[in-house]
Amino acid sequence: MASSPLTVRKREGRLAPETVAALNADLSARFGNRFSASDAIRRQHAHTLTWLENQPPDAVVFAETREDVVDLVAICARRDAPIVPFGIGSSLEGHVNAPHGGVSLDLSRMNAILAVNAQDLDCVIEPGVTRTRLNAYLHDSGLFFPIDPGADASLGGMASTRASGTNAVRYGTMKDLVLSLGVVTADGTFVRTGTRARKSSAGYDLTHLFVGAEGTLGIIVEIALKLAGLPEAVSAATCSFPDVRSACNATIETIQTGLPIARIELLDTLSVRAFNAYSRLSLPEAPMLLVEFHGTEASVAEQAARFGAIVAENGGGNFIWATKPEERTKLWKARHDGFYAQMALRPGARPFATDTCVPISRLADCVEETLEDIARSGLLAPIVGHVGDGNFHVSPLVDMADAKEIEAAEAFASRLAHRAIAMGGTCTGEHGVGQKKIAYMEDEHGAGALDLMRRVKAAFDPRNLFNPGKIFTV
Amino acid sequence: MASSPLTVRKREGRLAPETVAALNADLSARFGNRFSASDAIRRQHAHTLTWLENQPPDAVVFAETREDVVDLVAICARRDAPIVPFGIGSSLEGHVNAPHGGVSLDLSRMNAILAVNAQDLDCVIEPGVTRTRLNAYLHDSGLFFPIDPGADASLGGMASTRASGTNAVRYGTMKDLVLSLGVVTADGTFVRTGTRARKSSAGYDLTHLFVGAEGTLGIIVEIALKLAGLPEAVSAATCSFPDVRSACNATIETIQTGLPIARIELLDTLSVRAFNAYSRLSLPEAPMLLVEFHGTEASVAEQAARFGAIVAENGGGNFIWATKPEERTKLWKARHDGFYAQMALRPGARPFATDTCVPISRLADCVEETLEDIARSGLLAPIVGHVGDGNFHVSPLVDMADAKEIEAAEAFASRLAHRAIAMGGTCTGEHGVGQKKIAYMEDEHGAGALDLMRRVKAAFDPRNLFNPGKIFTV
C-alpha cells in the first residue's frame, strides 16, 4: 500500500463502496453524532460558490479537539481515505471538494481563542475562528487582525490559502502575519512549526511551508498570529477616474512614492454599478479607487494630501470622504460583499474566479489588455482589485446551461493567467491553486520548481491522504 | 552509494586522500586558476571569526557563472564530495567550515546587479553582492536595501542565514525582503522559486524554504530582493538609562504602542565602554538605547516626541541627537563595528557568539536574568541587542588557552539558549544554527518538527552533498 518514499501515490476515482462503508463505521463509532454521511451535509461540505462542480466527500466529521484530528488521521490512514479540511467553505478554487471521496474534516467548532498576548502583539487561536470573530474579540484590546478576504473566512482556511485582502498593501498577507502553526502530520504527530519570537534563524522555515499548502501537507489545528495596533486615526475615500488606466497609474505612483496607504482598491465601472445596486450606494459610475489611510491624525492628513495630488495629476478627482466610522463600515461592507454584488448583475449565472497578480509596473498594461480581451470575448466580466499589490480579480458571469459561454470564459481565464505570468506575475495572488489553477503551475514555476514541490509532498504525505487533487497533479 | 530517499546519508570524518586527489584533478581541469588547494586559501575559506575551530575544505573554487555552479555540483556529486557555499566568510556560527572536507564554493565573484526595477521597488542580484555595495549602487535611485548585519555580508549568505540587523524592527528580515531565489539543486537543475509578484498563493513556498536553509538544500545563484524608499527625513539619537531593565521596558513600550521606529538598539555599560574606546566616541557610560526614526519631517518629529515621553517615563534621558548625516554615519558605523569593539576589550581573547530572541514581553526578564548569570559566572561578556525584535547578543570573551574558561562560557551559552527557549523564544534570532546551535534544536522545535526538517533535507539532498554538519545531525 505505501508508495515509494519519493513518489506521491496517485489517486484515481473515488473510494470503493466497501471502503466507504468500513470507513463510515469507524467514524461513526469514534465520533457519534459529530459524524454525518447525509447527502445534504456532504454537499454543503464541498464547493458551492463558483462555476466549479460540487464534489462531495463520503462523510463529514466535526472535530472539537486536537485529539479528534489525530484520531481522524489515524482512521483515514488505516482505510487509506482522503481528508479534506473544511473551515467555512468560502474557498473560490474548489479546495473543499473531494474528487477522490474521503472525509471532510469540519474544523469550524475548533474556534477557541487560546491566548491574546497584547504586550507581544500576537494571539494564539484554533483554526475555526473567523476573521470577524477574532476582531470582535480583540475589540477592547487596542489591537486588530488586518487580513480581510471578502468572506468571513476561518483563519485556518486563510492560512492554508495564503489569503490576503484589502489591507495587505500595508499590513501584509497571511505569509507575513502567521507567526507559527500547530499541525497534525500524516503520521498523526502534533508539531509546532516555530516559537513566538518575532524572528528566528533556527532551521528550515516550516511555518511558511504549511501556509499556502492548502491542507495537502498537514492539518492546521493551532495558529499564532501577529496583530497590529488599531490606528489612532482612519480616513477613507472614493475617487473617480476617466478610465481604468488612469486609476492604475495613480495606484502605481502611490506605491512607488512609498506612501504608506492602508487600502487601495480598484472598481471598474461595471463593478461600481453592481455595488450601487447591491449595497444601495450612489457612487459615480466611473472607474474608481476606494482608499483608506491609517496613522496619527497628522500623518493621515499628510497622506491624504499627497494622495490627492497624485490623483489630480492622473486626471482623477471627485473625492467623497467617509470620515464617520459608520460611513466607512458601509463602504467596506460593500467592498467585502463585492462577490455577491457582481453575481447579482446576472441572476442565475455562476461566476468564474480569477486572481492574477503582476509587478505593479505592469498593472496598467495587464488590466488594459484584459479589458480589451473582455470586450472581444463578449463576456459580462466585472473587475475589482487590490491594486496596491498588483492583484486584480475579473469575474466572468456565465450561464452554466450554455456550453459555448463556459468555453469562452475558460479560454478567457486561461489567457488572463498566462498574460499575468508572462508579465512576471502569478495566476493566483490570494485564492490558492485548488483545482483549476493547476493548469498554470508549470508555466508559472517551471518543471524544476514543481518537482521540488512534489518532493515536499512526497516527504510529508507520500500516501496522498491530505487533500488530494489540489495544487498539482501527481 | 545513494541512500534510501527518505534518509539523509550520514557523513563521518573527511574524504579519503585518494578521493580528494581525484576531486582536485577534476576541479583543476574544469576551473583552472579559479581552483585552489593551497593551505592559506583553504584556511581563509573556513571559520575564522569566533572561538569555533577552523575546519578547512579540501579545495576552493571561485565561481563566476551559474554554469560554474552547475558543473561544480556535477563534479562533487560524482566524487560524493561536500559543497560548502562561501560569501565573505562573516558567519558567526561555523557555516563555512568543512567538517567533512569537500569544496568551498566561493561565490564572491558572482556579484552582478542584474536588474533594478525601481518602479516595482525590487532588484535582482547575484549572491556575491554585499549589502554596502548594493546600497552604493542604489544611491541615486531613491531606494535602499535596509537589512544590515554587522558585517558587510554577501546577500547570498544573508539569505542563507535569514539575517537581519538594526533595521529589522521596521523593515523586516531576509525572510520578509527576499522576493524569490534562483537555486541550483543537488541534481544540477536551476530552479526559480517564485515570480516578482508581491504576493502569490501558487503552491508551496519554496522561497522561504531556501531562505535560512544555510546552504543545505541548494546553492543560491540569484536573488530578487524587495527595496524600500529612502525616507525623506531621518533622525537618530542615543539616550541613557539607570539600568538595563529600564532600557528594555522603554523598548517594550515603544513597540507595544506601535511607534514605527526604524532602529532601536541596546548597549549595556560594558558595550558602551567598548564602543567609546574602539570608535573614539564619548557616549555616557550607562545602559543606552541607540534609536533612529524614518518618515516625513512631520512624522519623524512626532515619533521622536512620543519616544522621548516613553523614555522619560522609564527613568531615562540624556538624549544626544545626531541630526547631520555624518554624525549618524559615525554612530551606526560604531554599532556595526560592535563585534570588533567588544573583541578589543580583551586583546587575544576569542568571542563566543550568542543570539537569543524572545517575545518582547519577556525581554527585560531575559536580559536581567542573563546579567545575573554573567555576574555569577565571572565572564567578561558585553551585551548588545536589536531589542525592538526581542533579540540580543551576549559575547563572552574567552582565553582559548584556559579550558575552564571555555567550559564556563559554553555552560553560560547553553543556559542562555535554554532560558530564551523556555520564555517562548529561539536560540538564534539571526545568525543561524551552523554547528554549535545544533545542540538546542530539539529543545526549541521538538522531535516532530525536527523530523519534518530532516524529511525536507532527505527529499532535496539525500546524499548530503550540501553543507553537511550544519542545522542538524543526521
UniProtKB/TrEMBL annotation, chains A, B:
Pfam families: FAD-oxidase_C (PF02913), FAD_binding_4 (PF01565). It comes from the Bacteria. Its cofactor is FAD. It is an enzyme of class 1 (oxidoreductase). Keywords: FAD, Flavoprotein, Oxidoreductase, Transit peptide. One of its GO terms (molecular function) is D-lactate dehydrogenase (cytochrome) activity. Transmembrane segments: none annotated. Its EC number is 1.1.2.4. Residues 53-230 form the FAD-binding PCMH-type domain. GO terms for biological process: lactate catabolic process. InterPro entries: FAD-bd_oxidored_4_C, FAD-bd_PCMH, FAD-bd_PCMH-like_sf, FAD-bd_PCMH_sub2, FAD-linked_Oxase-like_C, Oxid_FAD_bind_N, Vanillyl_alc_oxidase_C-sub2. The keyword Flavoprotein applies. Belongs to the FAD-binding oxidoreductase/transferase type 4 family. This is D-lactate dehydrogenase (cytochrome). It comes from Roseiarcus fermentans. The lineage of its organism: Bacteria, Pseudomonadati, Pseudomonadota, Alphaproteobacteria, Hyphomicrobiales.
